[in-house]
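Example record

One chain of 144 residues, shown exactly as stored in the release files.
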Amino acid sequence: MIKDVFASGFNNLIREGGRQFAVKYYLSTTGSIYDEAITLTQSGNTVWTSGILQCPDPNNAEDNLLLEQGKIAMNDLRIYLHGSLWLSQPTTGSVLQTKVGSGSPVESWFSLIPIGAQSEDVSNQAIYKRAFIRRLTNGSLIGE
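Predicted structure tokens for this chain:
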């Protein structure tokens, strides 16, 4: 099937030029009406996967538009991960934040830029997801 060909091609790209990533999911809860502090609690285990990192390309029309709109910066990174991973808000009603660590052991932590992840689907199967990430200067999300 055609979707198997695309999935195999993506897996070959990861084997050739990919790196290890740790993906952590956090549920966000807000304090009482008097306390607006946000607390993040890790949801589930850390997921280890492989993917590809790239810098934004100002010659790419979509990247250029996001750069001009100020939604991403040149020091942000584009990440490609397996299509089965959650990189966007699921429809559970809970606020989910995602943190991505690069390397094994993790060298740097990143947060997903909230412009949404794009999924590349073939025959209703997500082959890969693309998102933009920003380095966490202190290694933690706010409220973690």
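Notes: The mean pLDDT is 82.
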